[in-house]
Amino acid sequence: MTRYLVGTASVHTTAAACDYLHPRVGADDEVVVVAVREPDLDGRDPGDATNVARTRLPAATVETMTREGEPAAVLQSVAEERSVDVVVVGAHRGDPQRSGPAPGSTVQALLGDVDQPVVVVPVPDLG
Prior knowledge:
The longest helix has 12 residues, at 45-56. The protein is of the alpha/beta class and 127 residues long. The protein has helices spanning 11-21, 45-56, 71-81, 105-113; strands spanning 3-8, 30-37, 61-68, 86-90, 118-121. The chain has a five-stranded parallel beta sheet with strand order 3-2-1-4-5, sandwiched between helices.
């Protein structure tokens, strides 16, 4: 069994994470999806983001939660609480209009602060 943590703030990030996970997860695997509410994003985004995982990863056990706070700190805390094996995050916040050449601040913080491998998935350009 492998326990994955998906950090998300948007449906785009969750969909990209699910595209990565779908061929890798099975009935014995667990996926914990954590949507982090951010003050400058639409309040519906976290709920919509977690719903995507439930429908796109039917083979795995999927648990969802929404937390408030600084995304990297929230994800690090949940990774420790849940003893996850792998952290999966989008390269950027999940807003394709805000993407750039370097990974976002959450990814940068996680790469230096968590003990688990961090998989960074690209969020597709919708433009």
